[in-house]
Design brief:
This protein is an alpha/beta fold. The protein has helices at 22-27, 34-41, 52-73, 81-90, 111-122, 124-127, 142-150, 169-181, 197-209, 224-237, 252-263, 280-291, 308-319, 342-353, 368-376, 397-407, 425-436, 454-489, 544-553, 565-573, 583-593, 603-610, 627-631, and strands spanning 101-103, 131-133, 159-161, 187-189, 215-217, 243-245, 271-273, 299-301, 327-329, 359-361, 387-389, 415-417, 444-446. One of its GO terms (molecular function) is GTPase activator activity.
Length: 639
């Protein structure tokens, strides 16, 4: 059956019979094949180099590579614990691989596969797993225990995702033991399991000791009011947790009350989700009382809690005393039921008189025309709200008219969503298009164009939004250029050249005393341009001795600060070639440039301070995840 290889061909590889040796394979000719004829001319004597030891090395390499690929793909059923041990040994003394993310979703991992995974996690310094995602695997009992036990001494895993399994209070106990010992895990996702109040108690006790976990998701479990109390007790002690998702846990008013009370003392939590918890208006009042005291929470999600207008009124009034809340989600809360406008009125007063929040979601509330009028009555004064979502809010033509009028004067809003408000009709769309011809800030509008003439109106709106986007970009570029010029031109030594004014309200430079300025008057001449520069923030002029030393050292260099101040002012002001900034904004930029404390600050910090607000130039202006993203338990990111 088999041809025995000639001794001249070398030792047979691995001692196994083969039909042809490697050398014979390369020498074998096939008629009519030009490639084979060429190959026969340039023969490579491979068997000369591949001994038994060489073949063993190649075979071992291929085997270990295959094991590694099975680990990456999650096909753990095709390898054994010994395979994993051999792979780990092979990494000794060489550059270690990084299994940074092990994403084993929807694999229905068996107990044996979990044991294989645990061996990898125990060799943490070699495998270096940081992100462990085990969602939708029907894990429970010993399968979960063997994984959590292996993590007790692990020092690399930072994200642990066990969402959508069959975890109960028993598995929560194992997790509690882990969190008491492990201080490296930063994010824990346990959404869509069966953890009850006892499980909440185990996790809460562990987090009273643990100082590493920053994000915890317990969405869609069975905590109930008692579980809410355990979580609240933990929040009073824990000073590291920043994000917690407790949605759909039937906490009811009692659980919401306890958690709200904990916010009065908690100083670390920034994001809280309490959606679908039967809160009602009374629960909203507990939450509102805490918001008057809490000054760390920035994100609040309470959709589908039936808080009605009274609940919105409580929260809006409390936010008048709050200065940190940025995002609030009030979707589907029966606001505006029976034509009630009390909640909308309170929200309108908040937006008119306060600088928070930056984003509001009011989708699927029957706001109506009258409620819309109340919200936007004083909205033209608001400069801080970036996004408002009013999808499916029963808004008609009168409500759209109120929105359009406010948009003509508003200078801060970046995005507005009015989807599924069919009563606005063609005239409503046209009103918005006309208003946007005057608005210079809005960059995103979501509308339903369900009419024949939609194309011309859509083009008009898109043209305005594009113009606003380019204008904002021009503002930011101009502000940065003025900052750079101010850093170069202005210096504390300039203070010696500043004229002294006897009246702080009058301009410190007069066109009459500056003949050089007569051909082109500075646009800032009518503002007290130099007043901010004489503030204590500028260091006093150096002594004459030090000054002479410095001047002697720089005698061969051009010193911009020796230019007449009028010329410096011209250079700075005329950098705004398209006049996109106001005089006050340029003054703020110059003041910013003159402070030593601002050196090394980020672009975002500079633009926020100098222009009072910073809106990132991005096409994605959503300020929270969409509903579909929220369903993806492991990808929700609300901080």
């Amino acid at each position: 059956m088999f041809k025995k290889r000639s001794s001249s061909m070398g030792v047979s590889s691995l001692g196994l019979p083969r039909t042809l040796s490697l050398q014979e394979t390369f020498h074998k000719k096939r008629k009519g094949s030009w490639a084979n004829r060429l190959q026969s001319i340039t023969t490579i004597p491979m068997d000369k180099y591949l001994t038994n030891e060489g073949h063993q090395l190649v075979s071992s390499y291929l085997r270990l590579t295959q094991i590694q690929n099975h680990i990456i793909k999650g096909t753990l059923h095709k390898i054994t614990e010994k395979d994993v041990d051999d792979l780990i040994k092979s990494y000794d003394g060489v550059a270690t691989p990084v299994f940074e993310t092990l994403s084993y979703l929807d694999l229905n991992l068996s107990y044996n596969e979990c044991k294989i995974l645990s061996r990898l996690l125990k060799a943490d310094k070699i495998t270096n797993v940081r992100n462990l995602r085990l969602g939708r695997n029907h894990l429970f009992g010993s399968s979960v225990k063997v994984i959590l036990d292996s993590l007790q001494k692990n020092t690399t895993v930072e994200i642990l995702d066990l969402s959508c399994n069959h975890l109960t209070d028993n598995e929560a106990k194992y997790l509690g033991k882990l969190l008491k010992k492990n201080n490296n895990i930063k994010q824990v996702y346990l959404a869509f399991n069966r953890i009850g109040s006892d499980g909440a108690k185990s996790i809460s006790k562990a987090l009273m000791i643990n100082n590493s976990v920053e994000r915890l998701s317990l969405e869609s479990n069975q905590l109930n009011a008692i579980g809410g109390k355990h979580i609240a007790d933990m929040l009073k002690v824990n000073n590291n947790l920043k994000y917690i998702h407790l949605g759909s846990n039937n906490l009811q008013r009692e659980g919401v009350r306890d958690i709200s009370d904990s916010l009065k003392t908690n100083v670390s939590l920034t994001s809280l989700s309490l959606d679908i918890n039967n809160m009602s208006a009374e629960g909203a009042k507990y939450l509102a009382d805490s918001l008057e005291i809490n000054q760390t929470l920035t994100h609040l999600y309470i959709p589908r809690n039936n808080i009605e207008d009274d609940g919105l009124k409580y929260i809006s009034n409390s936010l008048l005393k709050n200065s940190v809340l940025i995002y609030i989600d009030l979707e589907f809360n029966s606001i505006g039921t029976n034509e009630n406008i009390e909640g909308s009125k309170a929200l309108g007063e908040l937006l008119e008189n306060h600088n928070i929040p930056r984003a509001i979601n009011l989708s699927q509330n029957t706001i109506g025309n009258e409620g819309c009028k109340e919200i936007f009555k004083g909205f033209h004064k608001n400069t801080s709200l970036e996004s408002i979502i009013l999808s499916q809010c029963s808004i008609g033509l009168d409500g759209i008219e109120a929105i359009a009028e406010s948009l003509r004067l508003n200078i801060g809003l970046q995005n507005i969503s009015l989807n599924k408000n069919s009563n606005m009709g063609v005239d409503g769309h046209l009103m918005l298009a006309n208003a946007l011809e005057f608005n210079t800030s809005l960059k995103g509008v979501q509308l339903d164009y369900n009419f024949a003439e939609w194309e011309s109106i859509s083009n008009s709106i898109q043209k305005s939004l594009t113009r606003n986007h380019l204008l904002q970009k021009e503002k930011y570029n101009t502000a940065c250029n003025i900052l750079k010029a101010s850093r170069i031109l202005l210096n504390p030594i300039l203070q010696q050249q500043l004229p002294i004014s006897s009246c702080s309200t009058s301009p410190l430079i007069s066109p009459i005393t500056s003949p050089m300025m007569s051909p082109m008057m500075s646009p800032l001449m009518n503002t007290p341009f130099l007043a901010p520069l004489t503030s204590p923030l500028i260091s006093p002029p150096p002594s004459p001795k030090r000054q002479s030393i410095k001047q002697s050292k720089k005698s061969k260099k051009k010193i911009f600060t020796k230019l007449p101040f009028e010329i410096q002012e011209h250079i700075i002001s005329y950098l705004d070639t398209k006049h996109v900034l106001t005089g006050d904004q340029i003054l703020d930029i110059v003041n910013y440039a003159m402070k030593k404390s601002t050196l090394g600050s980020t672009k975002e910090q500079f633009l926020t301070k100098a222009l009072t607000a910073y809106y990132p130039l991005t096409s994605d202006i959503r300020l929270w995840p969409t509903e579909s993203t929220d369903r993806e338990f492991s990808s929700s990111d609300r901080i």
